[in-house]
Amino acid sequence: MIAVTGATGQLGRLVIEALLKTVPAAQIVAAARSPEKASDLAGRGVQVRRADYDDPATLDAAFAGVKKLLLVSSSEVGKRGVQHRAAIDAARRAGVELIAYTSVLHVDTSPLGLAGEHRETEAALRDSTVPFVVLRNGWYTENYTGSLAAVLEHGAVLGDSGDGLISSAARADYAEAAAAVLTEGEHAGRIYELAGDTAYTLTDFAAEVARQSGKAVVYRDMSEAEYKAALVGVGLPEPVADLIADSGTGAAKGALFDDNHQLSKLLGRPTTPLAAVIAAALAK
User: Fold this and answer.
1) Which regions of the chain does DSSP assign to beta strands (E)?
2) Of the candidates 118, 142, 258, 280, which has an alpha carbon nearest to the alpha carbon of residue 193?
3) pLDDT of residue 77
4) Which residues lie below 8 Å from residue 270, measured CB to CB, with a gap of 6+?
5) Calpha distance 141→217 (Å, rounded)
6) pLDDT tens, 110-158?
7) What are residue 169's DSSP bridge partners?
8) How confident is the model at residue 68 (pLDDT cuts 50, 70, 90)?
9) Which tens digit of pLDDT belongs to each residue from 227-277?
């Protein structure tokens, strides 16, 4: 039995889709805070169970009978350390034999503000008696293509990453790698630094959007404070804007770059090129 937390989230759903290619649906548990959002998965034979990081009793029930668990990091920044520890403790009580955790690229040295809670979670895994594997995910290319409508409207990609290289990959690449770790080979004790095969700058990103769309698009570099203000100005909550702006300056310092190709090695194929993710986003 394999369980995936955050099963109704963007990554969790993709992991379940990848698992369904090789694992019988009845052996997959979609653990979600709102099970009703996974009714389509239930209709396909996947076990849907309520799992609320803030309610340990639901975690005990969700992980019952589970042998391998993908702990997808919570989206609630500031609460993740406590939430993840609750999930790890519940996995231990349930007799889970392997936890795979989605951390962040180069968390040991990362300047990213969001890395702190991931370091805390990795420490909790080391303190636990449950065998684990860490998937230190790099950036999702969709983090940038998700705002293409605004980019095309204004003819500009805004950011504070300077000439920082970004080794991103498609979210589906990371999902497929997680599924492979859960179903193929022995991975306990391993730490994987996962990133795209080819790095680019946001200037390169803007140029590729311009090439494919046929519209003039440039990259406009800003200070962290200016970028945060711009994000708040378009309606993002200040904590979210702060996180995104901090990640941009982290990219300028190399936080989102990696050239070890561990992701493509797990996949057994090259990672999805930037151009392909942009093309898919433009097609929508």
Assistant:
1) 2-4, 28-32, 47-50, 68-71, 98-104, 132-137, 156-159, 191-194, 218-221
2) 258
3) 83
4) 197, 264
5) 18
6) 999 999 999 999 999 999 999 999 999 999 999 999 999 999 999 999 9
7) 140
8) very high
9) 999 999 989 899 889 999 999 999 999 999 999 999 999 999 999 999 999
Q: For residue 167, what are its two tokens?
A: 């080794």
List, in order, residues 6 or more apart from 186 with CB less than 8 Å away: none
**Separation of alpha carbons 187 and 183, rounded Å:** 10
Question: What is the C-alpha to C-alpha distance for residues 158 and 144, in angstroms, rounded to an integer?
Answer: 10
Confidence at residue 227, expressed as pLDDT on a 0 to 100 scale = 96
Give the pair of three-digit tokens for residue 250. 């982290």
Domains defined for the chain, CATH in brackets: 2-137 (3.40.50.720), 140-169+196-258+272-284 (3.90.25.10)
| Closest by Cα among 245, 255, 261 to 104 | 255
Please give the backbone phi and psi of residue 42, each rounded to the nearest 5 degrees, phi first: -60, -40
The Cα 195–Cα 199 span in angstroms is 9
| 185 has pLDDT over 90 | no
Partners of 95 in the beta sheet? Answer: none
Q: Are 50 and 35 in contact (CB under 8 A)?
A: yes
Residue 181 structure tokens: 């770790």
